């Protein structure tokens, strides 16, 4: 084999690896900032909220002291009817919204973040911080019944998936590089959340 052919092969293999990596990155979600991410064309109005009339949650929202760890069971058929296609993709099919496109990554208002599917209170604005990732990030959950975690070995990575403890919907992932006092970074999809501003 000539040197020319072999270096061509090497180059094309390198190109293939590079292209595969580029294809995987946007799917991984919640990576630390690269400074190169751009907001997509998805705007607030298209963020996948359920049609008006359905209300923001698909079960009555709970106040933190009403939470008792009970589960909300619904069939996938019911979820498909209740959620918008974008919500269904993230909440039930474990999709990831693109960084800097969601409604809440830059929200600095005081209030409570609920599960958009079932109204389970998940996070307080008091535990929200700027992670620079383009996804809303929190260093703690609101109640002991807010979320559950599961090992996630998809996309060639080992991550910890976060689901709603009440309805099992996918919310995002949690990482160990968050701020004190917990050192955790709950990296969530805005579309999985619904924010209620604090009163007064
Ligand atoms: Zn839920």
Mean pLDDT: 82
Hey, roughly how much beta strand do the residues contain? 15-25%
Strand line-up of the largest beta sheet: 3-4-8-7-6-5
Give the class-level CATH name of the domain at 71-200.
Mainly Beta
H/I helix tally: 3
Major sheet description: 6 strands, antiparallel
Question: Which molecules other than protein and nucleic acid are bound?
Answer: zinc ion
Secondary structure: number of strands: 9
CATH topology of the domain at 71-200: Metal Binding Protein, Guanine Nucleotide Exchange Factor, Chain A
> What class do helices, strands and sheet pairing give?
alpha+beta
Point out poorly predicted stretches.
34-54
Instruction: Please identify which CATH superfamily of the domain at 71-200 we are dealing with.
Output: Peptide methionine sulfoxide reductase
Euclidean distance between termini CA atoms: 76 Å
Computed Rg:
19 Å
Helix content: 10-25%
Note the run of SSEs as H and E. Answer: HHHEEEEEEEEE
What is the CATH architecture descriptor of the domain at 71-200? Beta Complex
The shape is globular
């Amino acid at each position: 084999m000539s040197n020319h052919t072999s270096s061509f092969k090497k180059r094309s293999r390198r190109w293939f690896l590079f292209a595969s990596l580029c294809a995987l990155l946007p799917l991984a979600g919640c990576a630390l900032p690269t400074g190169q991410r751009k907001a997509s064309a998805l705007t607030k109005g298209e963020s996948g909220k359920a049609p008006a009339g359905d209300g923001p949650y698909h079960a009555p929202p709970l106040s933190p002291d009403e939470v008792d760890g009970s589960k909300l069971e619904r069939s996938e058929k019911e979820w498909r009817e209740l959620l918008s296609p974008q919500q269904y993709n993230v909440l039930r099919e474990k999709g990831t919204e693109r960084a800097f496109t969601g409604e809440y990554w830059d929200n600095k208002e005081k209030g409570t973040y609920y599960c958009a599917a079932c109204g389970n209170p998940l996070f307080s604005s008091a535990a929200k911080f700027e992670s620079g990732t383009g996804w809303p990030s929190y260093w703690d959950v609101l109640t002991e019944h807010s979320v559950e975690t599961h090992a996630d070995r998809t996309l060639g990575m080992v991550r910890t998936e976060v689901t709603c403890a009440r309805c099992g919907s996918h919310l995002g992932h949690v990482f160990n590089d968050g701020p004190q006092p917990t050192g955790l970074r709950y990296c969530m999809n805005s579309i999985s959340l619904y924010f209620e501003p604090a009163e007064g």
